[in-house]
Amino acid sequence: MHNFETGTLPDLRVAFLNRSKWQVALVSQRARGWFAAHDRDTNERDRATIETDVAQVNRLAASARQSGLRIEFKGPLSVMRL
C-alpha cells in the first residue's frame, strides 16, 4: 500500500487537523473533476480544500478509491499512501 518509492503524487491529500476535523485537498485535476461529479453540495465544488469530519472522509475515500484515485493520508503519527 505504501508507494513512496514511485514518486507518484496523490490525487487527494487527507490530513488530520484535530479530534473532530479533517482536511481534504484536491491535488490533481482528475480529483477536481471527480469531486465536481460526485459532490452534492454546490458550495464546495470550486474549493481546492474541504474541512470535514471522519465519517465524510471515509465516504469520500471509499468512493475515490473505487474510481481509481490515489490518496495520501496524513495522520497524527504517520503518512500512508493508497
Summarize the entry for a quick read.
By secondary structure, the protein is α+β, with helices and mostly antiparallel strands. Helices cover 28% and strands 29% of the residues.
Q: DSSP strand (E) fraction?
A: 25-35%
Roughly what percent helix?
25-40%
What's the end-to-end separation, in Å? 5 Å
Compute the average pLDDT. 83
The string of secondary-structure elements, in order, is: EEHEHEE
What is the count of helical runs?
A: 2
- Counted beta strands: 5
Tally the structural domains: 1
> Major beta sheet, specifics?
5 strands, mixed
Gross morphology is globular
Give structural notes.
- The protein has helices at 29-38, 54-66, and strands at 12-18, 21-26, 49-52, 71-74, 79-81.
- The chain starts with 11 loop residues before the first strand and ends with a strand.
- The relative contact order is 0.27.
- It is an alpha+beta fold.
- The chain is built from 2 helices and 5 strands; from the N terminus they run ββαβαββ.
- It has a 5-stranded mixed β-sheet with strand order 3-2-1-4-5.
- It has one domain (4-81).
- A hairpin with a 4-residue loop joins strand 4 (71-74) and strand 5 (79-81).
- The longest helix has 13 residues, at 54-66.
Tags for this model:
single chain, 82 residues, alpha+beta
Topology:
Blueprint: E1 12-18, E2 21-26, H1 29-38, E3 49-52, H2 54-66, E4 71-74, E5 79-81
Parallel strand pairs: 1-4
Antiparallel strand pairs: 1-2, 2-3, 4-5
